């Protein structure tokens, strides 16, 4: 049953979180004990059963939280961080995929109150009709379908009542969730996760800021051949309410298992192009490419929604990203170290060059191989472990990359998780060459996009 508002008590929310964390930690400990105490298949089966129960508990725990905690849960659902044996990973990820679905909604009465307060008028003055049943309920708000008085179909994104207080409470309780994450997935850099969430969560609460980023992307992609970004209804935008035109598309979870390979490959290229174009062509980094933000249209296009976790980049930022990626592609460890030194992230010690290159290759290498590659979400576990091990190794204790790089790393993890869920195969280097080396497009989508953007948005000169 939906509630009137989100629970605000840090103590109450902390007790629920800690209780759930203790239960999950116990299951994980039991799984390890079963593996150690039993030989052969019997021990592995018993351990696996406990780990799958832990996954179900994890879903229940994170889906009951909001904001920061739910963001961590959604990230876990979108990538494979090696928490269970390979033979049961599909079942494990299927359980976690529930975190991509709706959170528990609040009542329509509570939604109405927020909308009317934020827009300064009665609900009937803003909308000819609005469905009281939400289309979706996410980490900080829920979405309702509505019709404007001019006949346009729209979606109304409304913040949960009390969500700001709840998120601040969650930030105090976040260390409990990150301790749990460290138990379930040793090697994850939980400090970087916490720092990133603290930096960005305030922006996500400001729908006026999100509306500005959304309007910018909608303008850029208006009439694009294979990308749809719905327009914002500016007259109905507020700090806690965001209204956009309705896009009729399927979510990731609604894609049939027998989807043809050609469709999966096409969608994979669209996803990669969109999320690379954001920072490199348009200077707007979308740090949250999780499954709930993509809608698959019947005509083959993909719609993109939710720009609350966006960050504008400058030309210098983009040049540094391209320079570091180019050095990784060329295997030039000294050039990569030079970029890191320019950023004051590392001392220019030649002994650090090769291990630093290895970490970048682990993260970006899948998109820099000159052959067809099936995107594999299981590689995110190795990517995370490689980078975490690097930061704890001799000479790298003081590694401090700019915040933009951490957001990019997370976006790359999530992007690989997305195309990995599609099992999409492409020669990804054909896409990255366009901005990495300035080459002409080698794919049909690339040529269509080049024609669309001609004279509008050029890649930066580097």
TrEMBL record:
Keywords in alphabetical order: ATP-binding, Kinase, Nucleotide-binding, Transferase
Taxonomy, superkingdom: Bacteria
Keyword Ribosomal protein: no
Iron is among the record's keywords: no
InterPro entries per UniProt: ABC1_dom, ADCK3_dom, Atypical_kinase_ADCK, Kinase-like_dom_sf
SUPFAM superfamilies referenced in this protein's UniProt entry, alphabetically: Protein kinase-like (PK-like) (SSF56112)
MF term (GO), any: kinase activity
Any Pfam family hit: ABC1
Chain segments annotated as coiled-coil in the UniProt record: none
Residue span, ABC1 atypical kinase-like domain: 98-337
Family to which this protein belongs: Belongs to the protein kinase superfamily. ADCK protein kinase family.
Protein's name according to its UniProt entry: AarF/ABC1/UbiB kinase family protein
């Amino acid at each position: 049953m939906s509630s009137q508002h989100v629970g605000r008590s840090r103590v109450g929310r902390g007790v629920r979180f800690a209780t759930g964390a203790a239960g999950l930690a116990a299951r994980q400990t039991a799984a390890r004990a079963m593996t150690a105490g039993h030989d052969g298949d019997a021990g592995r089966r018993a351990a696996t059963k406990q780990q799958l129960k832990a996954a179900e508990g994890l879903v229940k725990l994170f889906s009951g939280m909001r904001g920061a905690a739910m963001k961590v849960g959604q990230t876990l659902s979108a990538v494979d961080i090696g928490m269970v044996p390979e033979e049961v990973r599909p079942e494990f990820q299927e359980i976690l995929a529930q975190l991509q679905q709706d959170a528990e909604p609040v009542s329509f009465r509570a939604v109405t109150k927020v909308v009317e307060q934020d827009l300064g008028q009665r609900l009937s003055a803003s909308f000819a009709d609005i469905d009281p049943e939400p289309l979706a309920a996410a980490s900080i708000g829920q979405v309702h379908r509505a019709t404007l008085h001019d006949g346009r179909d729209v979606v109304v994104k409304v913040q949960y009542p009390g969500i700001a207080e709840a998120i601040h409470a969650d930030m105090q309780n976040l260390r409990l969730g990150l301790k749990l994450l460290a138990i379930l997935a040793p090697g994850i850099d939980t400090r970087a996760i916490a720092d990133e969430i603290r930096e960005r969560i305030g922006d996500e609460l400001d729908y006026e800021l999100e509306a500005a980023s959304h309007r910018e992307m909608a303008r850029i992609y208006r009439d694009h051949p294979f990308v749809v970004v719905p327009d914002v209804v500016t007259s109905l935008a507020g700090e806690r309410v965001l209204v956009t035109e309705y896009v009729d598309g399927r979510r990731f979870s609604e894609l049939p298992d027998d989807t043809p390979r050609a469709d999966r490959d096409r969608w994979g290229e669209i996803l990669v192009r969109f999320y690379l174009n954001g920072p490199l062509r348009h200077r707007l980094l979308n740090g949250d490419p999780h499954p709930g933000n993509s809608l698959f249209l019947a005509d083959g296009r993909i719609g993109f929604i939710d720009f609350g976790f966006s960050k504008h980049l400058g030309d210098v930022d983009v040049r540094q990203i391209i320079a570091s990626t180019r050095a990784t592609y060329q295997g030039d460890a000294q050039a990569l170290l030079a970029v890191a030194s320019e950023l004051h992230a590392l001392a220019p010690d030649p002994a650090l060059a090769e291990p630093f290159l290895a970490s970048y290759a682990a993260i970006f290498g899948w998109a820099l191989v000159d052959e067809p590659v099936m995107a594999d979400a299981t590689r995110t576990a190795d990517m995370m472990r490689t980078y975490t091990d690097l930061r704890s190794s001799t000479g790298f204790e003081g590694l401090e990359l700019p915040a933009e790089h951490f957001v990019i790393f997370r976006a790359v993890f999530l992007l690989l998780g997305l195309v990995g869920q599609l099992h999409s195969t492409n020669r990804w280097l054909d896409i990255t060459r366009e901005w990495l080396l300035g080459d002409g497009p080698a794919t049909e989508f690339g040529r269509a996009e080049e024609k669309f953007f001609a004279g509008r948005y050029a890649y930066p000169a580097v």
